Amino acid sequence: MISNKYHKIKLKTMNEYIIDEEYVYRLNDEKNNIWDIYKNGNKNPKSCKQLYKYYSLNLYSIDALLRNYFYLANPSSFNDPFDCNINLIKDVQNISKYTSVKRNNVRNIGICCLSETLDNHLMWAHYTNNYNGFCLGFRGDNIDANANREIFPRHSFTKVIYPASPVSIEQQLPFAQNYLFTTKFKHWEYEQEWRLIAEITNEREMIFYPESVEAIYIGHSIVDTNPSAYKLLLEIQEIKFPQIPVYVVYPAPFELKLKFEKVWN
Pfam families in the record, alphabetically (predicted)? Predict the structure, then answer.
């Protein structure tokens, strides 16, 4: 992890650092050196009422559902090589060791990505393999409440920012690490992403409470082409999440929007 040790460096003002016309970091707690991010003058929230985790259908996602955990991935596995890219930080020591295509390879950091949005066509196309997957709906206010403090002593839950033109910032800034792991290009803004970020030693599975799941949403391609997988998902729901509803998601037949058909509970 990048050191968050603070050195006196020249900021845009004494208590704020301007990223672009939308985003500004501001010092709100001088005693504890706590900086918060503002978008268009409004402080970014620390929690979200509802969040969604998208999954393609595979053995890993079935395992995560059955054993109720978030997998904290190395950013090098992300679909955007500019996500968590070390070039967001100036003057990183030994930067020459990073290859041009692996500048987001951070082995001691794990990240799980969630979204505020459920009814975005692109999210279902990209992250459930064209509706051949599922999505879990969570209460967002305690998304990391079950994080084992011994396994993940340093972790955070943060809203992603989307500057129009991300700048490289000084690594000595106290928010440099947060900036590195929560900054994406503007064209990704449709994802409305939040991130669980944790320092990793050995474990990358962060357990979540089954009670924090509010609904399961299943892409229609599973129902249409893989009835065995559909039945398996319903059986897992009955075992692990018996009180929550299940929906099948598909394009509405007479409207240009998604339809969520309740099929259980």
Answer: DUF2971
Q: How far apart are CA 22 and CA 147, in angstroms?
A: 32
What count of Cα atoms within 13 Å lies in the side-chain half-sphere of residue 1? 20
Q: How far apart are CA 9 and CA 140, in angstroms?
A: 36
**85 Cα distance to chain centroid:** 16
- The pLDDT tens digits of the residues spanning 200-234 come to 988 999 999 999 999 999 999 999 999 999 999 99
Backbone angles phi, psi at 226, to 5 degrees: -140, 70
pTM of the model: 0.90
Pairing of strands 169-170, 109-115: unpaired
Beta bridge partners of 203: none
Quick one: tokens of 9?
A: 């460096």
3-class SS at 215? strand
3-state DSSP helix/strand/coil % of the chain, to nearest 5: 25, 30, 45
How many residues belong to the chain? Answer: 265
Structure token pair of residue 96: 């020459």
